[in-house]
């Protein structure tokens, strides 16, 4: 994947190209409130949230090999904690979002302790069961609206900014911060000691353990960290929707299946993959908006196609041919 | 008496869950492969039987035979053409491919049959019950369902340990690299395993259609019940799976007796409790 050395590439020229592409993309995104219409802005907000979900799932599955299909647990918990803190705690929107992320990370500790009792494919379905437990549990809490959910009072959304345009701008920059922070976080981790340990695990878990990597502790830490960040994106997604129900908050299709498809189509185990996958997913959704369920079937079929043709996904395929890397994480000895 | 009644209902329901679980357990046992679309395949079986008997007006026996034949062949072909290509040490490709299938099946069913929930009416079968004691009766339909589960599991046990096919399945499960050296064909063996598992899925689908309401989105919950029954019972132990199904069923009916809203939750909690006490299940046969 990204860390496999391709000696024939020209690092200096590539560094310039990376800076140009990333800088350009950041500039375009950062200035979006000034050029994009309301509908486009809303779409970008959702895409940036999905980018964060995809980066987190990729960090978990692509680098530590923990295939979770229960990440909707943390989207839902993040959303519900945010609503509870904002409505009953009287806490401001941004602090409530951050607190709900930390709160979910704390809940992820016992959750992970349970889920880690299962391995491999069993871990995957076990996480799903746990997400269902949270969904059914939340539906029992009448203060949170039970099964029919709860709405965010208008004055809480209004507390962000006075006018509608300003409010949307603030919302957009929250999404922008979440999306870009997710990329930087993953990049930073991969360049740190953790990243080195993850590369070792990816190449051979047994060898990593024999040279002193505590693989279980590392995986657990990454699990808790991704849970917290996933909850941050979840909290924001439901701030944007202004209403939360157990079925929407803990939807396996919306928060896990599509995120899985995004990562795998874009390229698992690369930072670029989730970015490309997110762009493709939303572009396709715009084109196929009127196709209804056919669009979902098409997504499923594309994901199956990628697995059958080239498991590395689009970016993995490009990187293998060109040696390009927008986010250099490899270490040259 | 109310509680004894719920326990008995739960045991019968456990038979249905064991039927859900048997196919999943078989595929994992032979190929180390978890099929995310397992529940959706069961729901497809349920839609097929309703289509054949209600929409087309076929004789029930012919309808059942057609469903079983169709799903077994489809299972064999699916494994041969598609799933065999993603088997391997990496667990992600099979999970992703079957996740894709799950989405395609759910939305395909929605497109074909709408979101309305369905049920196969069975007339006198449903209304007849055996009076066991005062205020205690067992419905004929649940009783037959439980007997079917017993029969299916006994059949699988027999196939696995008493037939040439079973020997091949066990050998391939033990060491898929050596079997081809002895002249075995893994691709064919794997496809036979999935064909057999799909036959059980067909039976489970038919009972699902008779026992409860179902809709295009009913699959994932059936997958989770199946999975829980397998884990509670212990990996690789097919009779353990039956017991796992019963424990799950009883937990659900007792939960429903306490509050109708916590039926499913009670089942999940029973599963998590077993996971805390014994992560390898109550009666594990093989360790992973």
Automatic annotation (TrEMBL), chain A:
Keywords: Cell membrane, Membrane, Transmembrane, Transmembrane helix. CDD domains: TM_PBP1_LivM_like. Coiled coil: none annotated. It is found in: Cell membrane. It comes from the Bacteria. GO terms for molecular function: branched-chain amino acid transmembrane transporter activity. Its main location: membrane. It is a multi-pass membrane protein. InterPro entries: ABC_transp_permease, LivM-like. GO terms for cellular component: plasma membrane. The chain crosses the membrane at residues 12-35, 47-66, 73-91, 170-190, 220-239, 259-285, 291-309. This is Branched-chain amino acid transport system permease protein. The lineage of its organism: Bacteria, Pseudomonadati, Pseudomonadota, Alphaproteobacteria, Rhodobacterales.
UniProtKB/TrEMBL annotation, chain B:
GO terms for cellular component: plasma membrane. Its main location: membrane. GO terms for biological process: amino acid transport. The keyword Ribonucleoprotein does not apply. Keywords: Amino-acid transport, Cell membrane, Membrane, Transmembrane, Transmembrane helix, Transport. The keyword Ubl conjugation does not apply. GO terms for molecular function: transmembrane transporter activity. It is a multi-pass membrane protein. It is found in: Cell membrane. Pfam families: BPD_transp_2. The chain crosses the membrane at residues 6-29, 95-115, 135-160, 190-210, 230-251, 258-277. Belongs to the binding-protein-dependent transport system permease family. LivHM subfamily. This is Branched-chain amino acid transport system permease protein.
